[in-house]
Amino acid sequence: MGWTAYHASHYTKGKPDRVAEVNDLLTWSDERIEFSVILSKAVGSTVYSAVKQTDKATGKESVIGVVTLTSIDTSSDFNFSYKEIEESCGPSESKCPQAILDLLSPVETIYGGRAQEWAAEWRERCAEYNAARKTERANPDSLSNLPVGSQICWKYRDSEGEKEMELVKVDHPSRKRPIWMCGTRTYVPVTRIKTYSVIRA
C-alpha cells in the first residue's frame, strides 16, 4: 500500500492532529469484522497503535500492532498523508512505546507462518529499543542527560579514517531541544554520535 493524502478533520494548534487522524482511520467495521483503537502514540511523525479486532461471527477478539507513517503539508489542501503498515508486515519503524506493546495479543494467537515471524521480530526490535532508551535515561553521561554547556569528544570515521571532534551542547532558537555543535557553524545530528567521551558536564 502506498501513501494516501486527504484534507484533515482534526487539528491541534492549527496543524493536523496525527494521532486523532490515525485513530479515525483505524476505527471501522464491515459485516465480518470490527476494528477499534485502544491506544495510539506518536513518536516523531510515526503513530503506533494497539488496535482491537473483533470477529463478529465468533466474538473472538485480538489486539494487533499497527504502524502509521504520516506527513503534514500545510501548504496543500490535501494536508495530511499516511501509510498504514500492520505489524505482520515487519515495519522498519521500531520505536513503538512499551505501553502499546504490552496491550498486544500473543503473536501465535493471531498470525501464522511468516506473518507470525515478522510480527514477533518487530515486537522484539521495539522492546530492545525501549530497553536501550531506559538505560540511556538512567545514565547521567548520556547525550540526552548532559546539560547545556557540556563538552564531549566525538570519535567517528570518514573516508580518511578515524577522527575526533569536540562538540558543545547548546540551545538553538529554531529547534525544540538543544543540539551539538562544533564551533558556531558545524551541527552534528545526535543520531550520528555513537562513540564519545565526556570532557565537561
Index terms:
five-stranded antiparallel beta sheet; six-stranded antiparallel beta sheet; globular; about 200 residues; alpha+beta; 3 helices; about 20% helix; 13 strands
The total tally of domains equals 2
Q: Which strand order does the major sheet show?
A: 1-8-7-6-5-4
Shape: globular
- Content of β-strand: 35-45%
Order of helices and strands: EEEHEEEEEHHEEEEE
Task: Please state the structural category.
Answer: alpha+beta
How is the main sheet built?
A: 6 strands, antiparallel
Strand count? 13
Low-confidence stretches: none
Mean pLDDT comes to: 94
* Tally of alpha and pi helices: 3
Describe it.
The chain has three helices and 13 strands, in the order βββαβββββααβββββ. It has helices at 18-25, 98-101, 113-138; strands spanning 4-6, 11-12, 15-16, 28-29, 33-43, 46-55, 61-72, 80-86, 151-158, 161-170, 179-182, 186-188, 195-200. The chain has two domains: 4-138, no CATH class; 151-200, no CATH class. It is of the alpha+beta class and 201 residues long. The chain is globular. The strands form three sheets. The protein has a six-stranded antiparallel β-sheet. A five-stranded antiparallel β-sheet has the order 12-11-10-9-13, with no helix packed on it. A hairpin with a 3-residue loop joins strand 11 (179-182) and strand 12.
Brief summary of the model shown:
This protein has three helices and 13 strands.
SSE blueprint and pairings:
Blueprint: E1 4-6, E2 11-12, E3 15-16, H1 18-25, E4 28-29, E5 33-43, E6 46-55, E7 61-72, E8 80-86, H2 98-101, H3 113-138, E9 151-158, E10 161-170, E11 179-182, E12 186-188, E13 195-200
Antiparallel strand pairs: 1-8, 2-3, 4-5, 5-6, 6-7, 7-8, 9-10, 9-13, 10-11, 11-12
